[in-house]
Design a protein that fits this description.
Elements lengths: L1 H16 L2 H6 L1 H25 L4 H4 L5 H9 L2 H18 L23 H12 L1 H26 L10 H12 L12 H47 L7 H14 L3 H19 L10
Helix pairs in contact: 1-3, 3-6, 7-10, 8-9, 8-10, 10-11, 10-12
Amino acid sequence: MLLICIILVNVVAIVLESVPVISQQYALEFLVLEIASVAIFSIEYIARIWASVDKSKYASLPCSNTKKRLRYMISPLAIIDLIAILPSLMMFITPLDLRFLRVLRLLRVFKLTRYSRAMQLLLQAFKDESSSMLAAFFIMAVVLILASCGVYLLEHKVQPEKFGSIPAAMWWAMATLTTVGYGDVVPITALGKLFGGIITLVSMGMVAIPTGLLASSFSEQIRKRRQAFADAVHQEIQLGTLNTQQYEQLELIRCKLGLSKLDANKAIKAQLNARNSHLFCKHCGQRQD
């Protein structure tokens, strides 16, 4: 909770620091906050690297602790932790003017990924659907090129300043395919308008492909976590009851999976009912041995 609060305070401070009046008035406060935050994040980063050898993912690897730590250092979360402190360290150490690196400090918000179950679900959804997403983006890239070439052929003579080349026409194609439609660049010829309408209709289906993939994968991740908790409940149940120690163990599993208490109670109740249905006769209600 302390790290989450520090991350949120840093993000707010970085945003406010971009306002010249606030930056000048509270320059010392911003500097003290930055130094304290970098120190805390640096200690956290070093501690995570040192303790990474005990993670189940690396503990079983047949290599030295040094190699295990190096593997952890190139993991996505470790890279995010490094990016969170690297810009500030470079500004403090290097005599060069590196103020442009200040904006990179906003990447500290990605450190919340470690503590946010929703972000972990989203990242896992991206990972599971990576091949499908790549295929969808490849199709969109092909359609983007075709749309750019088509509008270039139809409009470059009439609007050479806007559609003078295929790369220039890509701006219109990108805005149209993503259904944004800024309106700063539009076809004016009859064929150009007809072509633009066709591309707009095609884009409605194209944008829905990656959205549908992510939505289905996100739902599947939630279903898997609920099923994992239900399996854990099934293993803990003995003679149709759960003792206090088992409830505490299930609560730890629930927090780890990021499930709500409502989902957890439903799973426990369903497993208890299923267990009790086998212990008692459905006809006479007597306990079966």
